[in-house]
Design a protein that fits this description.
Helix content is 5%, strand content 36%. The protein has 176 residues and is mainly β. It has a domain of 108 residues. The strands form 3 sheets. Strands 3-2-1-9-10 form a 5-stranded antiparallel β-sheet. Strands 5-4-8 form a 3-stranded antiparallel β-sheet, with no helix packed on it. Bound molecules: zinc ion (ZN). The site of zinc ion has 8 residues, from loops.
């Protein structure tokens, strides 16, 4: 038998940050591959400008970059739409390049509103377009821009498999 000793006098039960919207920035980034084999980033975010939770780190936030849909999905093998990456680019105003005109900018892309009505922009409804050449959106993006990126995050609390609560970033929001 082995006797183990541990000094837990300074131990404090971890409690997650409150469910709220926080200023935050990317404090670490790791490139990897998801279980489904898709390229992804694993981000750590640090909460900023908050009296109680400023400096708190939220880790293991994953952003899929590209790949194909799994065999269990509706369209196996079809390219995935990287929604979270798109939200990240727009919320943090990261530079991206249009595949058609090769213009690099961090401007928001255009959403087509059709050709009916006063505010219609004449582009196919619900489709995304380059703000420069108006071509259908085909973007390329360099993940070197991600470390240090800033935006706001809608942070929630979830229960982990171990029964302990942890923070999860449910949505990236623009900083202003
Ligand atoms: Zn373009």
């Amino acid at each position: 038998m082995a006797r183990l000793t541990a000094d837990l006098a300074d131990y404090e039960e971890f409690s997650p940050a409150d469910k709220a919207v926080y200023d935050m920035h990317v404090s670490a980034m790791e490139r990897g591959t998801s279980k489904a084999g898709n390229a992804m980033l694993t981000l750590s975010w640090k909460l900023d400008n908050h009296e109680q939770f400023g400096g708190r780190e939220i880790r293991f936030d994953t952003v899929v970059l590209s790949g194909v849909q799994s065999d269990k999905s509706k369209n196996p093998g079809a390219p995935i739409v990287p929604f979270r990456l798109m939200d990240l680019i727009q919320a943090c105003k990261l530079p991206w390049m249009c595949g058609a005109c090769e213009e690099e900018s961090s401007r928001p892309w255009l959403v087509g509103t059709g050709s009916e009505g006063d505010k219609a922009n004449g582009l196919p409804k619900g489709k995304l377009h380059c703000p420069d050449c108006q071509a259908g959106l085909k973007l390329s993006f360099d993940d070197d821009h991600v470390p240090g990126a800033r935006c706001k995050g809608a942070v929630d609390i979830e229960e982990g498999k171990n029964g302990k609560n942890f923070n999860k970033i449910v949505k990236y929001l623009p900083a202003d």
